[in-house]
């Protein structure tokens, strides 16, 4: 199997190599930081015109995961849109595509810091969402947690040394109570899991699960 | 021609100087639209360039900007200011001289635009920036002359293309602007003249007396050089002896890492504590300036350096140049030799030190080429389109642009005189909308058409962003190195990000000649201490890695055809004779491929003589081809002259292996995602303005907000493979790091003429390649498998498996 299965707060979860999280017991798929409309925001602010294919690319990968897992619930963990009005900027094809994906399944938009309110697309809009002992929110809270928290926002990535060459991948960052999702959107960068504030947020037992062809686990704090 | 102003003539007399013939020539041509002066270092080149300016300004009538001086180095601009100030003050001329570079203060820059000096000394980037302001026409209105110094260096680079494009804009802002280029000795003066002049203006070439031939030879060392490697440690005692015998010695190296190692070894052997410094582009600016100042004062006996001292400034009293390692390129060698002895009409003295046995051959070939005045160089081809894209954006910053007029203006630049309307439209469309097959930015076009047919920036904020990103110099991803201290210690220099990521706490490396210990990474700065207790890893710095030129490679091949080699030291001549007995020596116009078993592996050597970069690319392309043909390759290593492969099966069909059509196809597949190609893309995408290096109000944790250019490349390749930037990338892959152009040339010249020789054991010529560094494993197994092994090992080591 190309996914990494692990137990988190008593629940069995799958980190998929695409950067999505699947929860078999709930038949639930979670993705974070899609950042739809990032290219438009660049152009709007007088920046360069980035290749306008990122919405299509992100949706294609999301579609693939939803279809493969046959998920009944989808949670988008915030910053789904690069700015609050970005959902209005999506072209008709993209809007229809999202509507098609939403048909027949529960769809939850969690608010992010880029999109702190409801968007004009179907689905439920929530600040956070509790399900079977796991809390879904956009930004991890600083204090000690009593139960499991799943969040996004930081776009964790990790760099590994492979015999004189360095390789950087987006990754899940997971410790006993906290699971921080990688960014799923095509046009997203990353923050090293060993940099602040991720370094402080994560415990010494934290592992990273690499995205790519296979979801591979690796300890974060080796030294 | 105006006669020399009496004040200036008197001053020359008072100095007991006569005006050199070529300075006289430049005065006589003062009214020509373009003139190129080719003169050796120390030939009064700068004065020749400025004499007509001083002459025209002597009467004090001219108001505003008269002469623009452009050089590739900031330091050169301030140096010239000093050197020009003295005669101007002594003659008592009413001339204001100022420089303007990235280091000039903002208030000063602002004042210069409102009230420009008579002579402004600047760099290509600063000039491009000046042309982006709306008030540029007012500033340049009275401009009469532009002097481009070290034009031979600029003509080889995108910085030069940018300069000439900026100049085409300036030319249209003033009447009768005349151009002067100052160049060192080059192989093709006509090409530089074409680069300099407004197309199709003519451009006379003035050749100064080149002076006596240099006194150049190989450094005599009793011990033969080693078989492989680039350190030249065997030469240390002989080099120290030479340093003692001369006032100031420049010791040139081809790479910064080699300079560091040599400097380190030199100091270990420096029992007399001779004052020896080091200078290269990765060292901190303050440190470099300190070495430069010490050198000008004559305090240093020797400076270990790289190309960072190739250009310009008159560095004190250098009386010997030593080149460590094969010179790779005859033209650059000649220019480096010129650094010794700045007195006109005295021969420069230089010594070559081959670092290994093969380099002996290359050094002797280079010596012959210098004696025969045969310089090398490849025609550069038409002006690159990424620079053109940036130019269009810069022109748009200064105000609305008329595409027809802009196209005509661009065609007046020599390098762009052949640019087609379709190419121009492509670039223009890219600047305006991104130029994508999918039209997505109609609402947010960067450039918008106005009612009168001109185009202007849609968002005025864009001008600031464009100005912040002017330039064509690519900084590789480097990290600053600092001594660890509570509030940020002394900066030492920079190392490549890739190298930094392989360091763990306690590792040591060389920088600026000292061994430092890696302590950690803090806010993108490498923190080190002086607690050096381990053998240093070698730092990989950025900087150009030169490949042996086509002409020099061909000369080596011709040398191989001699019956014997009286010019070569016996150890090297014997080695070549042995090769001739066992196998054959590579021949011009043919391709030698050797195949032999060694230590249970089958080895194949392809002697392409195409230069390091091309041989490296050949290694990557051929290893893929070998996999297809079932030879099960395991790895390869490349030098300037050959690529050595090892694998499970012996090559049986060399023609199939070297099939040019398959090789072209290989390049196509390569474009799908090779790391070198992605680096090439990033450079062009940054120049063309798709990727912005600098953003206004950059956030501190900007890393999270910005994403890798590889994502853009992959996206374009997947959804828009015909996009302009991918076409530019493919064009760029013909030279530089990928250098596919030389593979193509080699294949054309040797097609159907392969000498395939099968042997029982390693040949003499191939043997040193087994000692080469930088062996590359072939990833038939792919990254994922390596990754799986590594992550599993880490998990079990951490007790998490």
TrEMBL record, chain A:
SUPFAM superfamilies cross-referenced by the UniProt entry: Metallo-dependent phosphatases
UniProt domain Calcineurin-like phosphoesterase: residue ranges: 28-122
Coiled coil location: none
GO MF term list: hydrolase activity
Pfam hit, one: Metallophos
Protein's UniProt name: Calcineurin-like phosphoesterase
Phylogenetic placement of the source organism: Bacteria, Pseudomonadati, Pseudomonadota, Alphaproteobacteria, Rhodobacterales
Automatic annotation (TrEMBL), chain B:
Name the record gives this protein: ATP-dependent DNA helicase RecQ
A GO biological-process term: DNA repair
Sequence ranges assigned to domain Helicase ATP-binding in this UniProt record: 26-204
Keywords from the UniProt entry: ATP-binding, DNA damage, DNA repair, DNA-binding, Helicase, Hydrolase, Isomerase, Nucleotide-binding
Entry-linked Pfam families: DEAD, DEAD_assoc, Helicase_C, WHD_Lhr
Keyword Magnesium: no
Keyword presence, DNA damage: yes
Residue intervals of the Helicase C-terminal domain: 235-383
EC number in record: 3.6.4.12
Gene: recQ_2
Top-level taxon of the source organism: Bacteria
Gene Ontology terms for molecular function: ATP binding; ATP hydrolysis activity; DNA binding; DNA helicase activity
SUPFAM superfamilies in UniProt: P-loop containing nucleoside triphosphate hydrolases
Similarity section: Belongs to the Lhr helicase family. Lhr-Core subfamily.
PANTHER family linked: ATP-DEPENDENT HELICASE LHR-RELATED-RELATED, LARGE ATP-DEPENDENT HELICASE-RELATED PROTEIN
Coiled coil region boundaries: none
